[in-house]
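User: Show me a protein chain along with its predicted structure.
Assistant: Here is one chain, sequence first, then structure tokens.
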Amino acid sequence: MPAILDSGARDTGCILSEPNGHRGRANIVIAAGAGILAPNTVLAKVTASGKYVTAKATGSDGSQTAAAVLLYGVDATAGDVWVAGLVRDAEVNGKTLVYDPSISSQALRLAKDAELAAAGIIVR
């Protein structure tokens, strides 16, 4: 039997639908120190800086509230990185989303999905 190759998460692979003209996308800044992030990662917007990090299970600086989905993989280990993200009016495939390791249960995933819905991003 031939080996099955898995190339991992694919850029924009989560998108099921989005509005005309890519209106659901925006150029966002991934904060320095966020590390290497895979495409389709669920993001939160840090209130003080307006920059994005992975959406955590807890926090008090905005990093606890899912607000966007990263469309392309980035390395924000050493500095801020500009990249496209889904921020409104879109449907995404929940099976392709990448969550922060602190999102360790189905209940926490459902909570992040509900937060995305509040931002206009519906997880299917």
